[in-house]
Here is the input.
Amino acid sequence: MPLPPDRTGFRLALMPEPADIDELGHVNNAVYLRWIQAVAVAHWQAVAPAEHQARYIWVVSRHEIDYLAPTLPGEALTAVTWVGTPRGARFDRHVEISSEDGRLRCRALTVWALLDAASRRLVRVPAEVAAPFLR
Here is the structure.
């Protein structure tokens, strides 16, 4: 799914480390999962006001990942993420990881749930929390 015009995308540069390469000579699928979480967290930290970051915690309730092409050692990548429409306490997040030549390596849809940091209970995503991620 390409970045919708009403969403603000966030980009993160990625470079595989030697430990990310598996016995098949390419980036292990579990590494993509780590990168998917890293770009989501970086997006939250870059965009959300400090008071939101102190008041709320995001947790993953679901990952759906399509591995489309292998990434070899030394290949630079870019992860792009954007959010969907909040539904109660949940927010879909889209991630695409591509090589420098634009070849899509991985596509993911993750479902994140918002928790109140103090009570650790689910809370409906407030409009003011969603607003910075929407155009």
The chain is about 20% helix and 35% strand. The longest strand covers residues 104-116. The mean pLDDT is 95. The first helix runs from residue 29 to 47.
